Amino acid sequence: MRKPDPGHGRRGQRRLRGTAARHSGRRAEAWAALWLMLKGYRILGFRLRTRQGEIDLLAQKGGVLAVVEVKRRKALEDALAAVLPEQRDRLRRAGAAVAATRPRLKALAVRLDLIALAPGRLPQHRPDAWHGT
């Protein structure tokens, strides 16, 4: 009997969609990082795993440590709504934990930013996207 091709069937299709989504997410994060660098931010890390959760981008500008969530959606409002309050809390705690373990970051104010990407549009950066809530 022939083994099923992993690219066929429901499981294979789901795996292919997951792979495509990961690649799309990584491209979005690269674009977001480039956009932030053009705005004068220094990128300190990509996809940082912490006990509290994963940080898409960690960036610094002046006295601010930006914990940046990157979302690719059709509209900015959809991107803002995609990050639920529980995730925002985890991201803030993750940013504070990273800052606490790195002496050069301890004095910085931790802020939660959003970079929203939409097809055919320039990235939109929302500093303090949820106004500390």
Description:
There is one protein chain. Helix content is 40%, strand content 28%. It has helices spanning 9-38, 76-81, 85-101; strands at 42-49, 54-61, 64-72, 109-117, 124-126. Strands 1-2-3-4-5 form a five-stranded mixed beta sheet, with helices on both faces. It has three helices and five strands; from the N terminus they run H-E-E-E-H-H-E-E. It starts with 8 loop residues before the first helix and ends in a 7-residue tail after the last strand. It has one domain: Trna Endonuclease, Chain: A, domain 1, CATH 3.40.1350.10. With 133 residues, it is of the alpha+beta class.
Give the second-level CATH assignment, the architecture. 3-Layer(aba) Sandwich
What percent of residues are in strands?
25-35%
Overall 3D shape: globular
Average pLDDT confidence is 87
What's the SSE pattern? HEEEHHEE
Strands side by side in the biggest sheet: 1-2-3-4-5
User: Count of DSSP helices?
Assistant: 3
Q: Between the first and last Cα atoms, what is the distance in angstroms? A: 58 Å
